[in-house]
Design a protein that fits this description.
Layout (H helix, E strand, L loop, with lengths): L26 E2 L6 H5 L7 E7 L1 E2 L11 E2 L5 H20 L5 E8 L7 H14 L9 E5 L6 H9 L4 E7 L3 H6 L6 H14 L3 E8 L6 H12 L5 E6 L7 H7 L12 H20 L3 E2 L4 E3 L18 E4 L5 E2 L3 E4 L6 H12 L11 E4 L2 H13 L5 E2 H8 L3 H4 L1 H9 L11 E2 L3 H5 L1 H7 L3 H9 L4
Parallel strand pairs: 2-5, 2-12, 3-4, 5-6, 6-7, 7-8, 8-9
Antiparallel strand pairs: 1-15, 9-11, 10-11, 13-14, 14-15, 16-17
Helix pairs in contact: 2-3, 2-10, 3-4, 7-9
Amino acid sequence: MNISTLDSTVRPYQSYVYAYPHKTAYRPLVERPALRELWAAEPRDALSLYLHIPFCEVRCGFCNLFTRIGAPEGLVTAYLDALERQAGAVREALGADARFAAAAFGGGTPTFLEAAELERLCDIAEKGMGADLGAVPLSVEASPATATADRLAVLAGRGATRLSLGVQSFVDAEARSAVRPQRRADVEAALGRIREAGIPVLNIDLIYGIDGQTADSWRHSLDAALAWRPEELYLYPLYVRPLTGLGRKEAREPEAEWDPAWDPEWDERRLRLYRAGRDHLLAHGYEQVSMRMFRAPGAPATGGEDHACQTDGMVGLGCGARSYTSALHYSFDYAVDMREIRGIVDDYVSRPAADFARAEHGRWMTGDEARRRHLLQSVLQAEGMAAAEYRARFGTDPAEDFPAELARFRGRGWLDPDAAPGHLRLSPEGLAHSDALGPELFSPAVRAAMAAYDLK
């Protein structure tokens, strides 16, 4: 089914919704609530722990994550010192009965850290926060250049169960076009080292919609990835966002009046590549978990089944990390511009431990916002959502709370008509349009806050 047969005004690529609300909806918390009070009444038996490393060897042209290029001498040590101080303050606020069901190191590029620094990062998670990395799933992000044998040995030895490698393309010219300078030979060597390290789950990230990418070159990258039999594959559409390398490049073209946020021809090309990639992976036996995620047949369980992102809390350490309670989502300040990011990192490493005992930037979650988040986080997964689970939590039915949105999705063919009674599940085209469906569930207040945010 082509988008034009559904609604020609729908922009299929509006925003990748991986968390709700987005950080651009956060604001300074004047009251600076104490973490001890925020977490006092929260369930703390299945928390997720996230440690953010805001360093990369190079910043890709599409990247708007909170990260800086390189680190002057002493900064990584100072950052780990600050992480340790923050861990102490947060652990005290959580109390001794807090239990972690999952852990992740992200960024940035966690493997930017050298082997000894990765050992210290694991110590902060285990000794500082009380997470048993050998007993819970531990996911770590890496780049080909930093996936060295000594770093991988540390991660494998400390219990890493999943290693996610940002490849994006196995075609060197496409990697350069996305401002990700790398050679396929180096990527293949990194994949070999990861397999030798014995980390149970390998994930490979690929991007479609790169300038110059064709159906043939996209399939070439898919087949190159499949040759490694990864347990997971993520297929991401390319976005050109403000203040990123590609965004600045487009802004420097005075003759171009192209709006990368709304280009029907590019949208159609990305949809074609997405469908081709999806069908290719399904034909190889992969299971579609979401618009982006595909899991191999027989892949080991992640081990994090007792953590539910809709209801269980998240504890984030490091600038760039979010934390979630049922009442408040909070983090540090957010930026995309490199100068602003450097300033936020420098401020973070200079803070005393007492500064980490309070929340500074965030957004309070009203009952309506909690409902929106639960529906959004659930329905964007291929398995969908049982209305009974929603009713058990909120005492209402999603069809009562979101009648207009669900009617609109149904009218566009985005909801699966063959789903079991009382079950909301996206159709294949609904999954394909996840980046349009997700933003339509944003509240007017969150939309207004995001629009008013001074991106820097």
